[in-house]
Amino acid sequence: MLLSLLGRREEPLDESVVAVQGALRTMRGDGQQLFERAVECFYQVGEKMRKPLKERFFAKVKKTEECWEWQACLDRKGYGRFWKDGRNCHAHRVSYELIVGPLTRDQHLDHLCRNTICVNPSHLEPVSLMENVAREDTFIGRKCREKLTRQQIESEIWV
Asked: pTM above 0.70?
């Protein structure tokens, strides 16, 4: 089906489409091999045609006076999501890494503006998970603040 669609084009084909067409013609073997080769071929073509990461990312951002608001996909908690390096990542993390620098896996970003769709790196602060939860205005956040306070007091007493 795909091969017949590619073959019916009237305008000249670019080299990426010709590569796909050639790969589809030479495919033989069981269905699994066919599928794997087709996916690999289309992935390579997609990489050639894909825009640079920064360009793709900032096309989905609306800069206002205060925040840079994410305009694309949101998760159920209201945080932006962005496809990067074959993974679905938090948009605010991608923004921070693009502009400021890399984060370690155990670092979390706290939204200082309390706007979950904000991807402005100046509104994001790298903190530990415990600190991030403690800053929330929820029941769990209050309990976490109490625990942090107790830990700080105990560490000062025993030091």
From this structure: no
